[in-house]
Every structure is written in structure tokens, then in C-alpha cells.
Design brief:
Elements (H helix, E strand, L loop, with lengths): L1 H23 L4 H11 L1 H16 L2 H4 L4 E18 L5 E23 L3 H67 L5 H35 L22 H11 L1 H21 L5 E14 L8 E14 L7 H68 L4 H36 L5
Antiparallel strand pairs: 1-2, 2-3, 3-4
Helix pairs in contact: 2-5, 3-5, 5-6, 5-8, 5-10, 7-9, 7-10, 8-9, 9-10
Protein name: Outer membrane efflux protein
GO molecular function: efflux transmembrane transporter activity; porin activity
Keywords: Cell outer membrane, Membrane, Signal, Transmembrane, Transmembrane beta strand, Transport
């Protein structure tokens, strides 16, 4: 009796320990998304590019501010020279050094360039907006991938449970067939068939476990963490059944990342045409500076040293009169690019609306399949229980039991698959509408 109590306590302790470890390793969907958003490489890269575009959004980058430069020139020569003067005299210098030193600051401020500087600043704002949209698009795509991968694991886990149940039935069948054979009430053929079916069920369970392990590695890769990280997941798939086509269509028009990016690209094409046209206007700039110059010469001329310093200022203007018809060519190409941008926007609108129609149809179909397959699972489970009891009593043969097993496994597989596909359709609809969130 004491041994039985000790044995029971050991089993209970192991069960509690495994349960605690499972709880400690449990990965919720919310935790998975948070980890993915913190670690995902695509998000990090897009955020870095967004930071670059934010750094570029400056007035000076667009050409609105003056440019001030410091200049320094120091040239030295060492020469031997002989000069004959008009009065008949000569002046000689051996290894004489000549120095020219110039330094100062200059300013150049373009005050008018056909409004191109203002257009350039508007383009920088659109590039910054494009960076924001790319970050948003990567975040939503990452969330969608993580949710899909997570619920793929849930679906596989449900199928594993169904296969495990079928395996236990096969074990019971083998045990029963072995007992019947030993007492002479069953045939060896029945026993061998039970062993073959048990091996087949064991093989199926092993393959599904291998696929499950591979999917876990894939999720760890999406989360950009150690690929060998062990974790457990929740065992249910909850599908939002309240999505409305009209609401999704409204959200798509205003929030779809592809449409927003296309709109920014079209705006950039418009600004590019405006900038190209600006080259027809004159360019006017203010110039100014302060310079200091110092020169020393050998004693062969009238001056051996000079110093000068002073302030200069002025204005420059230029206009393109003729540049080999390049201006006309540039404007025509800019117009074509703008037209292509508009066509691309129309193409994307057509594409995302077609996706919406197809995805919503899949969503509704799979919702109906979920309800249908759920009822079928209940029926298959009840049928398996009744068939197993009848098999134990000897009122039915192994073929009927095997058929009930297959129906049970197939029904669970179809139910899990319908749930998973319905969830995928929901995720895809939310991503398309730009509303997917944690």
C-alpha cells in the first residue's frame, strides 16, 4: 500500500512539474506579436530608412538656405632668376622664395530657381511619408505572418490530438485482438491487421509531429529569436464572424497601404514634372565674401610684398535659352512618368478590390464550413465511442472500427483546416483593409 502511495505521489509530482513548465513556456498570440515587432529584421530596416528620410527633410537639403564656404590657398615657389633692366643693370635672385596666400569665406544664396527649391522640399515630405507607409506596411505584414503561423500551429496541434486519439483506439484494438488470439477466439490475420494499422497510425503521428516541429522553427524565425526556443501555444482558433464587406471596402479605400503608397508615388511624379518645368525659369543668386591675400616675391621686380583684404558682393542670373531640346524631352518624359503613375494607381485599385471580393467570398465559405465540420466532428466522435464499445463487446468487427477511426481523424482534419482557412481569410481581409492590429 505504501509503495502504491509513493508511486502515486511521484506521478502527481511529475505531472505538476510538466504542467508548470508548460505554463512557463506558453507563448500567447499577443506575446508572439510583441516579440516579432521588436525583433523583425524587415521592420528594423524600414525604420532605419524612415529615419534617413526624416533626416533629409530639411530646408537646406532642398536648396532654400545659403551656402557658406571657407577657402584657403597657400602656394610656394622656389626659383633662381636673372632680370635685365632697361637701364642696363641686372637683378639676380638665387633660390628665391615666392609665396601666395589667400583665405576667406564666400556665400552663395540662390533666391529664385523657378520654384524648384519649394518643389524639392515637397518631394522630401512625400519621401518621408513614403517611409512611414513602408514601416506601417511591414508592421502589418509581419503581424499577419505571425498570426497565420501561430494559428497554423494551433490547427496542427488539434490534428495531432485527433491522431493521438485514433492511435489509442488502435492500441486498444491490438490489445483486444491479441487477447482474443491467445484464448483462441480470434484469428492471427486479425492480430496482424491490428498491428499494421497501429504502425500506420504511429507513422502518421510521427510525421505530423515532425511537421509541427518544423512549423515551430518557422515561427521562431518570424520572431527573429533563437530557432531552438521551446514554447507551447493556445489550443483554440477564434474567428471573428462580424466582418462586413461594406465596412471593409470603406476601410480599404482610405487605409490600404498599397493604395496609400501608390498615391504618394503619383504625388512624387506630379512634383517631378513641376520641378522639370521650373528649369525654364531664370536662376538668380546672391554672392558675397570676405577675402585676404598676401604675396611675397624675390627682389627682382618693383614689388616684393603685397597684402590685400576686403568684402565683395554681387548678384548672378542665368536662364536656359537653348540646350539642344533637352528641356522638351525632359518634360515629355516627366509627363509619361506621371501618366504611368496614374495607370499604376488604377491597376492597384482594381487589384485590391478584386482581392477583397475573393477573400470575402472565401471568408464566408469557410465560416459555413466551420459550422458544418464542427457538427460533423461531434457526430464522428460519438460514432467512434459507440463503435469502440461495440468492438470491445464483440458485436462488430475491426473493419467497422477502422472506418470509424478514419472518419474521426478526417472530420477533425477538415474542421481544423476550415477554422484555419477562415482565420487566414479574416487576417488577409484585415491586412488588405489596413486595420490589422495586435
Amino acid at each position: 500500500m505504501k509503495k502504491q502511495i509513493i508511486y502515486f505521489l511521484v506521478i502527481l509530482s511529475l505531472f505538476c512539474t510538466n504542467k508548470i513548465n508548460a505554463q512557463n513556456n506558453r507563448l500567447t498570440l499577443e506575446d508572439a506579436i510583441k516579440i516579432g515587432l521588436e525583433n523583425n529584421y524587415d521592420i528594423k530596416l524600414s525604420k532605419n530608412l524612415k529615419e534617413i528620410s526624416a533626416n533629409d527633410l530639411k530646408y537646406g537639403i532642398s536648396g532654400m538656405l545659403p551656402v557658406v564656404t571657407g577657402n584657403l590657398t597657400d602656394v610656394n615657389n622656389v626659383q633662381t632668376s636673372e632680370v635685365e633692366l632697361s637701364n642696363g643693370g641686372t637683378r639676380n635672385a638665387d633660390n628665391a622664395k615666392t609665396t601666395n596666400l589667400n583665405y576667406g569665406a564666400s556665400l552663395n544664396w540662390r533666391i529664385f530657381d523657378g520654384f524648384q527649391m519649394f518643389t524639392n522640399y515637397d518631394k522630401l515630405k512625400e519621401f518621408d511619408r513614403l517611409g512611414e507607409l513602408n514601416v506601417k506596411s511591414n508592421i502589418q505584414a509581419t503581424i499577419a505572418d505571425i498570426i497565420a503561423s501561430y494559428f497554423d500551429l494551433v490547427s496542427q496541434e488539434q490534428q495531432l490530438d485527433a491522431t493521438q486519439t485514433a492511435l489509442e483506439v488502435s492500441q486498444t484494438r491490438l490489445k483486444n485482438a491479441d487477447s482474443r488470439y491467445k484464448i483462441g477466439k480470434g484469428s492471427k490475420l486479425e492480430l496482424l491487421a491490428a498491428k499494421v494499422d497501429l504502425t500506420a497510425d504511429s507513422s502518421l503521428l510521427l510525421r505530423q509531429r515532425g511537421q509541427y516541429s518544423t512549423s515551430k522553427t518557422k515561427l521562431n524565425e518570424l520572431l527573429a529569436r533563437d530557432l531552438n526556443t521551446s514554447f507551447n501555444i493556445s489550443d483554440t482558433i477564434i474567428v471573428d464572424k462580424s466582418l462586413s464587406y461594406e465596412t471593409l471596402q470603406q476601410q480599404l479605400s482610405s487605409q490600404n497601404p498599397q493604395l496609400q503608397i501608390a498615391a504618394v508615388n503619383q504625388k512624387l511624379s506630379e512634383l517631378n514634372l513641376k520641378s522639370v518645368r521650373g528649369a525654364r525659369y531664370p536662376t538668380i543668386a546672391l554672392t558675397s565674401g570676405y577675402n585676404f591675400a598676401k604675396t611675397t616675391s624675390p627682389p627682382t621686380g618693383f614689388s616684393i610684398r603685397s597684402n590685400s583684404h576686403g568684402f565683395n558682393y554681387g548678384i548672378t542670373a542665368s536662364v536656359n535659352i537653348f540646350n539642344g531640346l533637352q528641356q522638351n524631352k525632359n518634360e515629355k518624359n516627366a509627363k509619361i512618368e506621371l501618366n504611368n503613375s496614374k495607370l499604376n494607381t488604377e491597376k492597384i485599385i482594381q487589384n485590391v478590390n478584386a482581392q477583397l471580393i475573393n477573400l470575402y467570398s472565401d471568408y464566408q465559405t469557410n465560416l459555413r464550413l466551420v459550422e458544418l465540420e464542427k457538427r460533423n466532428v461531434d457526430v464522428a466522435e460519438e460514432n467512434l465511442k459507440i463503435t469502440l464499445e461495440k468492438y470491445k463487446l464483440g458485436s462488430i468487427g475491426p473493419l467497422e472500427l477502422r472506418e470509424a477511426q478514419r472518419n474521426f481523424v478526417d472530420a477533425n482534419a477538415r474542421f481544423s483546416n476550415a477554422q484555419f482557412k477562415a482565420k487566414l481569410a479574416e487576417i488577409s481581409l484585415r491586412e488588405l483593409a489596413g486595420t490589422i492590429e495586435l
